[in-house]
Design brief:
heterodimer, A: two-stranded antiparallel sheet, 14 helices, B: about 170 residues, mainly alpha, two-stranded antiparallel ribbon, 8 helices, 2 strands
Chain lengths: ~375, ~170
């Protein structure tokens, strides 16, 4: 089965719900593990990587959690297939650049994804919609406990799990949440929040991880330190930070609606106008405008329209999802035309925003 | 004060990050701060920045040159490779480059000792070696007390414990 046939459709995938999903789009916990006695993938020769993939892949494929799964070597996947997986956040951009000697195992529900020979021999992650970091940790902890029975991990009593990059050393854990923060961006509080979160030792990044832009007002918050602190302490600490950010975002939205309704409605109205009527639109502009429409839905300006519609469009208007839909390689200009066509069609039944209907989020102290 | 990255130009950008009471500092010249993306609040983290500078920060050029000659006996990775990529070659590199990694780990993490999950097999190894150590102590005491009957029993127990430990060793 090809990965295209395996993947859940964007429409279905966008219907997944979880706690606080107005603001927290998804939660992820990733563990980095390596095998003892073998060079890390970045330093290993191709033959060594092919060999270690041959050991690791069957071990992952036979896990009870992976009963129904997709597995393949990265050199068997086309560029399009790899980029679709990146746009779905199922593999990293780094992993998409790998070929012979690297692999992927993904479960049916798309909640567990194991990258083999990325930067480390194993990069396993659990994904959940909304704010569910504890659940994600439990799921990936179980996978890890199963794997340690059959794979000899590189582990030191003093330094913990040994990783290719010293920034992952110890627990090898990266806990992250993807946040939609239009309120904080519009009220120009976002830099303050980023500074505060960074000071607490967490990293704030754009939509697709390290070194990417915060398109569509979407930010990723993750832990930075992995050594000298237990997994549960790391989780508790980041959960507290996330609760605070959620509160600030809700307050920012409430304040905006109360103090600057014209500014908010202007942004949302224009976003709707362009998305529903444009004949050419870039991916970047689409993301930024869809973010405002998502905010409009949260404020009840689009009665009867589900957030899932916007989330689906967030995905299907991405360059490679679009390319897959229309087949063949599209030139960027042509992609912008097709993207606009699709948006006009999908938004044709969405009525103009109804400002009298606005429901501001409750203010908290 | 010279820039921590290029060590040539006067540092103009001074960054301080306080993480739970631990202060981390870095001083950069304008060009290096731009190159490292310090002015971009979304893409910047002190740990990423510190990484790649390695131990050269506090070493004199002569010493730095000497350390960059060190090569991992297990995988052939050199300290120069580490400085270039910020990644290590294999698990054994952590021992090979332990000296220069020490200060780096201290600057980027909360502590320098792992707390958290321990693989089950490692847990048993730890328990078995603790038990073995206790038996050895008892044996020493028994011999000192000239209790040879007890010593013989302990010697047998040690044999069993050693066997368990070696069977449990990761393959």
């Amino acid at each position: 089965m090809s990965i295209h046939d395996f993947l859940i459709s964007p429409a279905e995938a966008s219907k997944r719900t979880g706690p606080h999903d107005r603001i927290v789009m998804s939660s992820r916990v990733r563990l980095a593990r390596n095998l003892t006695g073998l060079a890390f993938p970045g330093w290993a020769k191709k033959t060594e990587r092919v060999k270690s993939l041959g050991v690791i892949r069957p071990a992952v494929e036979t896990l009870p959690q992976m009963a129904d799964h997709f597995a393949d070597a990265m050199d068997n996947l086309s560029q399009l297939e790899k980029q679709i997986l990146v746009e779905r956040h199922l593999i990293s951009r780094e992993h998409a650049a790998k070929s012979a000697g690297s692999g992927l195992v993904l479960n049916r529900e798309e909640t567990i994804s194991v990258m083999i020979n990325e930067e480390d021999h194993l990069r396993m992650q659990a994904l959940r919609p909304g704010l569910q970091l504890k659940h994600a940790w439990q799921a990936i902890d179980e996978v890890d406990s199963q794997l340690e029975k059959v794979l000899p991990y590189a582990y030191s009593q003093e330094l913990g799990y040994l990783t290719a990059c010293p920034t992952n050393l110890g627990t090898g854990i990266r806990v992250s949440a993807m946040l939609h923060l239009p309120g904080l961006v519009l009220s120009e509080q976002i830099n303050q929040i980023i500074t505060a979160v960074t000071k607490l030792g967490h990293a704030v990044r754009g939509l697709y991880g390290e070194g990417t832009e915060a398109l569509g007002n979407i930010f990723q918050v993750s832990n930075q330190m992995t050594l000298g602190e237990s997994e549960t302490d790391i989780l508790d600490r980041i959960n507290k930070v996330l609760q605070q950010i959620i509160e600030h975002e809700e307050n920012a939205r409430a304040t905006l609606v109360e103090k600057k309704p014209k500014v908010v409605f202007n942004h949302i109205g224009r976003a709707y106008g362009i998305l529903a009527n444009a004949h050419s639109i870039s991916s970047k502009e689409t993301m930024n405008l869809l973010s405002l429409m998502r905010l409009g839905i949260d404020l009840a300006l689009f009665p009867g329209i589900e957030r899932a519609l916007v989330d689906e469009l967030f995905l299907t208007t991405q360059p490679f999802h679009l390319q897959k839909l229309f087949g063949d390689k599209l030139a960027p200009e042509e992609r912008d035309l097709r993207r606009a066509d699709m948006l006009r069609e999908r938004l044709q039944d969405v009525k103009r925003p109804n400002y009298k209907n606005v429901v501001p989020p409750p203010m908290t102290e | 004060m010279l820039c921590d990255v290029c060590k040539q130009i006067e540092a103009k950008v001074h960054l301080t990050q306080i993480v739970e009471g631990v202060t981390k500092k870095i001083d950069l010249c304008e060009a290096c701060s731009k190159a490292k993306g310090v002015d971009d609040p979304t893409g910047f983290s002190l740990a990423d920045l510190l990484l790649g500078l390695g131990a050269a920060q506090d070493a004199t050029p002569a010493v730095a040159e000497e350390t960059s000659q060190v090569t991992c006996p297990q995988c052939g990775f050199s300290h120069a490779d580490f400085k270039k990529s910020g990644r290590l070659g294999c698990a054994a590199c952590y021992e090979t480059f332990a000296d220069s990694l020490g200060s780096l780990l201290k600057s980027m993490h909360k502590g320098t000792r792992h707390v958290g999950k321990v693989p089950q097999a490692q847990k048993q190894t730890r328990d078995y070696s603790a038990a073995l150590k206790a038996l050895h102590q008892k044996l020493d005491q028994a011999i000192a007390a000239e209790n040879f009957e007890q010593a013989a029993i302990l010697r047998d127990e040690i044999k069993v414990a050693k066997h368990k430990l070696s069977e449990n060793a990761p393959t």
